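User: Could you go from structure to sequence for me? I need the amino acid at each position, not a summary. Structure tokens:
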């Protein structure tokens, strides 16, 4: 277990460039927002460890980052966010870990309330809430002072629509963990935050919205406040900022291009 200390959180530059040389574990990093963040971090010179359930997709993501060049190491670990042994193995592979981003879990459990099953609700909980608790537990043991854990939720928590109660109840559970975990890990000077995302152009979003092409995504995005949906890199930039700034703690940041205001 990381030490409880009376020393304050270290002071360092709050700019993303300060992440050069650090190690970031991204659970759910083989596509979408996680991979978008990984690209930015790798470009900054951070060592990146991607963890995901699908080995083929994970291998492709690792190859994608390595092909971008740079000296920073890129590793991949097959792991389900709800499997504590697998997540712990991903931490072991990484060795020293400074920051963790958990993006695993989609709209599992979505659908009309009449059709939501116990199995779907249980899977949603395991992937999002239990996965967050697993990550925080291992992070408490491993992360140094100034390290961080970043979780994710969605704007439907505050702007619900029919057919998402099963999924959004779980995402709301993730948000309630942020303050509790931030308080519990603060004596170890480990920070916990979350990003509440709107609609971003990711494979998950395209599949859920039946938007198979760039043209379809562009057409659907014209109704968004800024005239388009965000990119995976724009989404991934927010946790990068949260990792870099050592005084951001216990917060839920909304990244939605103003969608929750419309």
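Assistant: Here is the amino acid at each position, in order:
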């Amino acid at each position: 277990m990381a030490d409880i200390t009376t020393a304050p959180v270290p002071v360092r530059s709050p700019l993303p460039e300060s992440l050069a040389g650090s190690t970031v574990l991204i659970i759910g990093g083989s596509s979408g927002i996680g991979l978008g963040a990984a690209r930015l971090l790798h470009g900054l010179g951070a060592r990146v460890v991607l963890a995901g359930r699908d080995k083929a997709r994970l291998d492709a993501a690792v190859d994608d980052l390595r092909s971008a060049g740079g000296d920073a190491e890129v590793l991949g670990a097959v792991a389900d966010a709800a499997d504590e042994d697998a997540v712990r193995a991903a931490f072991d592979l990484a060795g020293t870990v400074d920051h963790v981003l958990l993006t695993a879990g989609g709209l599992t459990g979505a659908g009309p309330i009449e059709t939501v099953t116990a199995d779907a609700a249980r899977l949603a909980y395991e992937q999002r809430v239990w996965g967050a608790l697993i990550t925080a537990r291992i992070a408490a043991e491993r992360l140094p002072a100034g390290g961080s854990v970043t979780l994710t939720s969605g704007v439907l928590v505050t702007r619900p629509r029919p057919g998402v109660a099963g999924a959004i109840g779980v995402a709301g559970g993730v948000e309630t963990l942020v303050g509790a975990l931030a308080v519990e890990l603060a004596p170890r000077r480990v920070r916990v935050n979350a990003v509440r995302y709107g609609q971003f152009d990711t494979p998950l979003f395209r599949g859920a919205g039946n938007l198979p092409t760039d043209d379809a995504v562009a057409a659907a995005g014209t109704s968004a406040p800024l005239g388009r949906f965000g990119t995976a890199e724009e989404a991934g930039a927010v946790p990068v900022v949260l990792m870099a700034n050592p005084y951001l703690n216990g917060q839920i940041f909304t990244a939605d291009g103003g969608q929750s205001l419309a």
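One structural detail worth keeping in mind: The chain has one domain: 16-201+232-257.
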